[in-house]
Amino acid sequence: MFQDLLNHIQDPIVWTGLTQVGAAAVLAALVVLLSRRRGLGLEAELSIAFARGFVQIVAVGLVIGGLLTVPVAWSALILLGMVGGATWISRQRGTGLPGVTQVSFLAITVGAGLVIVTMTGAGAIEPTVRSLVPVGSLVIANAMKINGLALNRLKDELRDKRDEIEVGLALGGPPAAVLARHLRTGVRASLIPVVDSLKSLGWVWIPGVMAGMILGGENPVYAALYQFVIMAMIFAAGGLTSMLTSLLMGRRVMTAAEQLRRIGDDGD
Amino acid sequence: MPEAPPLATEHLTRVVDGQTLVADVSIEVRAEEVFVVFGPSGSGKSSLLRLLNRLDEPTGGTVYLDGTDYRTIDPRTLRRRVGWVPQRPTLIEGTVAENVAWGPTLRDEPVDEARLHELLDRLGLSGFADRDADRLSGGEAQRVAIARTLFNDPDVVLLDEPASSLDAAAADRVESLLADVMAAYALTAVLVTHDADRARRLGHRGVRLRDGGGVATGSLDALLSG
Hints:
The structure holds two protein chains of two kinds.
Chain A: H1 2-10, H2 12-37, H3 43-67, H4 74-91, H5 100-121, H6 129-160, H7 162-170, H8 175-200, H9 208-215, H10 220-252
Helix pairs in contact in A: 2-3, 4-5, 4-6, 5-6, 5-10, 6-8, 6-10, 8-10, 9-10
Chain B: E1 7-16, E2 19-25, E3 28-29, E4 34-38, H1 45-52, E5 60-65, E6 68-69, H2 75-81, E7 82-85, H3 96-100, H4 102-106, H5 113-122, H6 138-150, E8 156-160, H7 168-184, E9 188-193, H8 196-202, E10 205-210, E11 213-219, H9 220-225
Parallel strand pairs in B: 4-9, 4-10, 7-8, 8-9
Antiparallel strand pairs in B: 1-2, 1-3, 1-5, 5-6, 10-11
């Protein structure tokens, strides 16, 4: 594994890449210089962000370079680690909701997991670390964003519409029916960005995977098709995650006696 | 053996985060009477009311419906039997008719249109069925909220200061319509109010609360003069 990593670093293409980084750095330095001239006071922040971004992305490249050499079974472990991170980050959007960590973990695992497993089975994702980890991470990261949006909206909805929900319960309404419109609002709000991305796909923006494939010399039509597959995976995983989060949270926010729990500001 | 009252509480208590909201309240509401829960702001009147239909959970004591401990009754059945009119009407988006029929709609039950119109007539809302609930005045909205609760045909109605957010004229109109409808349907009700005159006009007996606890129970004359 270490020898493979060394080979990756010593590859002549890496030196070419560093030269390109140098050229990009000159442009970035120009922005810093302009910022100083115009007294924007952003030089330190821009320089640090630029250097930090470089270190982070190279570190990820090295990690992925190392991971490419491990057996494919490790992919599951790596992706599970990513789900853990995604859970931790997105749960913060729903702080105060009961069982938010558990619900997020379950929803992202099932939502993203089902899509990754199905698409691997269908042949859209190669069963290799090289393919599973980056594509899986795309799916998980988007499930994380969508989960965060769903939790955030759901929390607002449960707080703002508490009176309405309690009136519904007081009329003898089943909690699922009383909460339905509020859960729907959460799901709908969380899917707006991905639906907008699908709408603008190709004519407003050319997403990264497709751009990378074309730059890498891949057939542009196939690159477009594969990009669509990726978008569909993101949509499916996000939709499943959001719906699961809403469904599970809809149960968690009710007590056994069908009372709406207080939605606090902290903790699970 | 005497018949059990429609609603009674026994040492009913609710403490949240060390703060006592309702302290050891024992009351008995008789059939077809309007039982008034009277007391100053912050004395626990609304908190007590929310325990009576189990919207909040008692931390001590319990409530009996016709002699049955309400913890043994399915919450949905319980809340149909003990209706609640909140302080603010809190209507949903849609027409007046959709609001009044919200209970059966949530439970996926058929809506009795004739009864719905009868209730609207009784509450001075004839011809309002198809109006947008967003365009109602405060008094009209509160009357829709009362109709919505009564449409569930409850055994006991909990009224949480139903006229407190209205101007005097609208409050008087709500009060007189409420008195009519309660007499017409021979309703048993628990009315929360801090207004002694309103309590006298609508109520029969009651309890005076202070700091969550019942300090006196009995006839209104004695309670309100105390």
